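Why do we care about 3D structure at all? Because function follows from shape, and shape follows, mostly, from sequence. That is the central idea of this module. The next example makes it concrete: a single protein chain, its amino acid sequence, and then its structure expressed as tokens.
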Amino acid sequence: MPTRFMARLATIDNTHLGFYVPKYVKEFYNLEEGSYKGGIAPREGDLTSCSIKLRPYKHTLRGTLPKNIGRKGSIVEVWLYRHSRTPFKKST
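And the structure:
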């Protein structure tokens, strides 16, 4: 069963859209940084499956979507599978 929550898409850097994971979602589901299988479902009803990367940002996480996924300012339902987490490799 995927973890689902609502978020507003915003520009994360010059090329990607993303969202901020609410602090209560991060704490309740014990989400950690890494890459997850999941996707977004805009209000219009189109379902987009993609890889979602969660990185630390202040006291919560910031999710980044692949290029050309979603529209800036739209409210979407984000869904991801917690068991599909792939941690990022630490550079030494």
